[in-house]
User: What shape does this take?
Amino acid sequence: MRIDLHVHSSVSDGTDSPTRLVVAAREAGLDVIALCDHDTFDGLVEATTAGQQIGVEVLAGVELSTRYQGKSVHLLGYGCDPRHPELSTEMKRLRASRAGRLEKYLQSLAELGMPLTADEVMTQVGLSPSLGRPHIADAMVAKGYVKDRDEAFGLYLSEGGPAYVRRYATDLREAIAMVRRAKGVPVVAHPWGRGNRDRLSEDVIESLAADGLDGIEVDHTDHDARDRERLARLSERTGLIHTGGSDYHGTGKPNNPLGINTTSLSAYREILRRIAERGGVLPS
Ligand code: AMP
Ligand code: FE
Ligand code: FE
Ligand code: ZN
Assistant: This one.
């Protein structure tokens, strides 16, 4: 069984539609994927339907924007009830802050000599309800300011970069509790990834485990072999479920092909067992 528990579609900042994503997963030899678009569940119905037709199991997921002591942390939630009122309201707030920062980005990019219009960015956003920096990066590429997303982030858009604009994110502990109340299974995405300005310490992760965190994404492209070993040992010591995923974004992240990192069958079964126990959403 090949299980990739972290993939994105064009419903957030990936480049494949949910259907195309499922086709690509099949072609990559995957049996299970978890669609984890940023701050939205909107791709799940299409992905699940395509999965049933094409023969790929689709686990309902989401990647929530959270913050811990000023650090941006991405929290994966598996099997959440998509209609849970509290979580829905919070995700709406996150999406509003994503869209609400656009004007500030246009301003800071204009000051850097790279004028863009809101329309030029919205063309890249398309029908996605979750405006992301990668869409702004794509608009910069279309204007010829940078060659690809990676360059846009490297030079301008990364946290702390010259064009960076902060936005609202849920407190990490609150987000963990909220995912649990929505009957889901919270797992910290790429805890020591490049995207994290400062790493979450082992002590902090251990205390999060005591407060309801279920797992950590050990196997991720942003982690080198040494970090993976340390995180794997941490997961064993704390009982956190050890997961892995590609963080596939289609052509948006060429170094993250589908299935480059995977989750073991036993870890996946444990996630499903906890979702079932909590009354959350299992793959159909
Ligand atoms: P936002 O959701 O607006 O905070 O933007 C964060 C997203 O940007 C992440 O989820 C990644 O998909 C993407 N990202 C971050 N760094 C890079 C990079 N160097 N190249 C391409 N995409 C990136
Ligand atoms: Fe992303
Ligand atoms: Fe992430
Ligand atoms: Zn992701």
Q: What stands out?
A: The chain has a mean pLDDT of 97.
